[in-house]
Amino acid sequence: MAGMGSLMGDMVRGAIAGGAATWLMDLVTTGMAAGQSKAITAQETAASPNGQSAVANLVDRLDTDLDLGLTKAAKGSAASAVHFGLGIAPGALYAVLRRLPADRSRSRRCLRVGPVAHQ
């Protein structure tokens, strides 16, 4: 299509947007959590498997299954990388898929609501 930027440029812009959205969501979530009661925080913790986030549980599982031997600090870094990756990757993918005509891309129509799979 005439006037469109490069595919790689679109991917980079989409990845940046996904990372920025994840960062902003973290700020909002942290602010909301700071303002909630201790009872609600305790309920959320009790409802979390192993008392941690889904991403932390995923990192633990990968560490165990792949016998990585990650330290606690490395698990924290890996969890951050996975968390932001779950925002960045769909942002980059959507940037590519939006190049397709809407009538030819069911994937594009499905992604309009945005990725909501991560915490």
Explain how this protein is built.
The protein has five helices and no strands. With 119 residues, the chain is an all-alpha fold. Helix 1 packs across helix 4 and helix 3 packs across helix 4. The longest helix is centred in the first third of the chain and has 29 residues. The chain starts with 6 loop residues before the first helix and ends in an 8-residue tail after the last helix. The mean pLDDT is 86.
Describe the secondary-structure layout.
Elements: H1 7-35, H2 38-47, H3 54-65, H4 72-97, H5 106-111
Helix pairs in contact: 1-4, 3-4
What's a concise summary of this model?
The chain has 119 residues and is an all-alpha fold. It has helices at 7-35, 38-47, 54-65, 72-97, 106-111. The protein is 70% helix and 0% strand.
Mean pLDDT: 86
Q: Could you say which overall geometry the principal axes of the C-alpha atoms support?
A: extended
- In angstroms, what separates the terminal alpha carbons? 36 Å
Compute the number of helices. Answer: 5
H/E element order? HHHHH
Beta strands, count: 0
Provide tags for this entry.
single chain; 119 residues; mainly alpha; 5 helices; extended
